[in-house]
Amino acid sequence: MDSKKEVTVSFVRPIDPKDGYNPKHFEYIEKKLSTEIENIDNISYSFLCNGLVSDSAGVSSITRTIIKKLFNADIVIVDISTLNPNVMFELGLRLSLPKMTIIIRDDATDLPFDIKDTYILDYPHSLSGIDLDKFINKFKARFIKAWTDFDKSNGEDTFIHSFYGSNLISPEIKTQSLNEAIDKLGNMIDLMQQKYIAWDPEDNWDNFNFDHDVSSPVPLDDN
Questions:
Q1: Is a pLDDT exceeding 90 seen at residue 9?
Q2: In this predicted structure, what is the pLDDT of residue 162?
Q3: pLDDT digits over 62-121, tens only?
Q4: Per CATH, domain 5-163 is 3.90.1740.10
Q5: Cβ neighbours of residue 32 closer than 8 Å, sequence gap 6 or more
Q6: Distance between CA 89 and CA 209 in Å, rounded?
Q7: Which of residues 144 and 17 earns the better pLDDT score?
Q8: Is residue 63 within 8 Å of residue 47, measured between CB atoms?
Q9: How would you class 9 by CB atoms within 10 Å of its CB: exposed for 0-12, middle for 13-18, buried for 19 or more?
Q10: What pLDDT, in 10s, does the model give residues 123-137?
Q11: Least enclosed by CB within 10 Å: which of 15, 23, 150, 221?
Q12: Which residues pair with 5 in a beta bridge?
C-alpha cells in the first residue's frame, strides 16, 4: 500500500511572449521542471504538478481560479523573469500565506529591491544545455530540502511567519472561511481591474466591510 503523502505543485510565470525571449521560453521551463518534479523518487512524498494557477478549464472567473489555486497548492513555483506585473502580484498574494513558495528567474532579470534578500534560484536565459542541467540539479536539491524542512516545521520558516507575534500580524488572528475570503478578494480585484472607485464621505473605513464600501461604484474619468 502506497503511504506517500501527495503534494500538489502549481506554477506562476509570464504567459505572453516577451521581447528577447523565445515564445516558448517560459512554457519550456515550466514543463521541464514539472517533469523533473514528478519524477522525484522520495519515500515519503509524491509530487503532482497542476500547471499554471491561471489555468481555468472553462471556469467563468479566472481571478477566483487564480486565487483559489494560489491559496490551495502545497507548493507554488514562481518565475519572476521580466518582472511581469501579474506574476509579481500573484507572488505577493502567495507570500502572504504560511505556505511554501520557490522563486526562480533567468539570469537576465535584475532583482527589485523588495526581494533582494529572498532566496531565488537563477537559470540561464539562453536555456543552454550544460548550464540548464546545472540549474535543474540545483533546483531539485533545493526543492526537496525546502519541502522537507517546511513539512517538519509546519511553515515556521515562511516569509509571512517571520511577522507573526509582531505588531503587524498575530498568529491568533481570526479569519473568515477560505471560500468567503477568496470571493471578497476576487470582487476587490475585479473592481480594480474595471477602474472603479467608490467613496462615501460618511464611511470611516474602519470595519473592512468591502461589500458596503463598493456598493455604488463610480467609474473613473478616462480623461
A1: yes
A2: 67
A3: 777 888 889 899 999 999 999 999 999 999 889 888 889 999 999 999 988 777 778 899
A4: no
A5: 132, 136
A6: 23
A7: 144
A8: no
A9: buried
A10: 999 999 999 999 999
A11: 221
A12: 45
Q: How far is CA 219 from the centre of its chain?
A: 30
Of the candidates 148, 138, 53, 133, the one whose C-alpha atom is nearest the C-alpha of residue 100 is 148
Give the separation between CA 15 and CA 111, rounded to whole angstroms. 20
In angstroms, the CA 86 to CA 84 distance is: 6
- Residue of 68, 56, 32 whose CA lies nearest to 186: 68
The full set of domain ranges for the chain reads 5-163, 178-219
Q: CB-hemisphere CA count at 13 Å for 26?
A: 25
Residue 92 is which amino acid? G
Cell numbers found for residue 137: 540539479
SS3 track for the chain: CCCCEEEEEEEECCCCCCCCCCCCHHHHHHHHHHHHHHCCCCCCEEEEEEEECCCCCCCCCHHHHHHHHHHHCCEEEEECHHHCHHHHHHHHHHHCCCCEEEEEEECCCCCCHHHCCCCEEEECCCCCHHHHHHHHHHHHHHHHHHHHHHHHHCCCCCCHHHHECCCCECCCCCCCCHHHHHHHHHHHHHHHHCCEECCCCCCCCCCCCHHHHCCCCEECCCC
Angle at 179 between CA 184 and CA 66, to 5 degrees: 75
